[in-house]
Each structure stands twice: as C-alpha cells, then as structure tokens.
Amino acid sequence: MSEEIRRKRRRRPEQTIKVVDSMTQTIIGKVSDLSETGMMIVASTPIMQDALYQCELQFAASYAMGAPISVGCHELWNETSPLDGISIVGFRFIDISRADRRRIADWVNAAGSRYA
C-alpha cells in the first residue's frame, strides 16, 4: 500500500456507518475508520481476500450526510481474532466520484472528530 494513501487522516465514527454490498444488498459490516482514500471495517460476513467490492456507505441520520456514498473498493488485508472471531478488514477506494470523495474529506475534517 502506498504511503501517500496511508497518510490521509482517518476518522472514527461516533455513530454507525453501515457498509452494504451493492451487488447483493447485504450489510457486510460497519466502518471502524474512514478516510477519503479507504476504510477499515468490522465485517459481519466473510470478505474474500484481494477481492473487489462495490459498496454503499450508509451514514447514520445524525451525520446529515444525505444520500449514501457509493465506492468501488479493493480488499487489502483481513484479520480475524482467534478469541472472538471478529474480522477487521482494510479496503482502499478504487472508484469514487470527486463529489463523494469531497463529502468524505469534509466529514473526516469536521470539528470535534476522533481520529485513528
């Protein structure tokens, strides 16, 4: 993974951001941290290694983000805890509109945000 991508500020959400697989309309997890270039999620379904996904980020109403954000993303890494079986997955965005990237950047940089 390029250092440029990893250097982007990553915000931890205070409210749930659901990650929905656009192909199956299945919730695959929730965002653990988010930047304009990628995200880390707590997966609720198995995620294939090195796979491409088309996802929709559904922000809690309290964020006032409006319409969900559509992203094409690539699975970079996947770790499962041997203690509780929870999977944490890292994705980089490979397809996102400029407007949606700007919406995420504005959300990430909003006053009072918590960062990873």
Describe the 3D structure.
This protein is mainly β. 13% of the residues lie in helices and 46% in strands. The chain has helices at 3-6, 98-108; strands at residues 11-12, 17-21, 26-34, 38-43, 52-59, 69-80, 87-95, 114-115. The strands form 2 sheets. Strands 2-3-4-7-6-5 form a 6-stranded antiparallel beta barrel. Strands 1-8 form a two-stranded antiparallel ribbon.
Q: What class do helices, strands and sheet pairing give? A: mainly beta
Strand order of the largest sheet: 2-3-4-7-6-5
Mean pLDDT: 93
What's the story with the biggest beta sheet? 6 strands, antiparallel, barrel
H/E element order: HEEEEEEEHE
Q: Which spans have pLDDT < 50 for at least 5 consecutive residues?
A: none
How large a portion of the residues is in β-strands, by DSSP E?
over 45%
Spatial shape: globular
Note the gap between the termini: 17 Å
* SS element count, helices: 2
- Find the count of extended strands (DSSP E, 2+ residues): 8
Percent helix: 10-25%
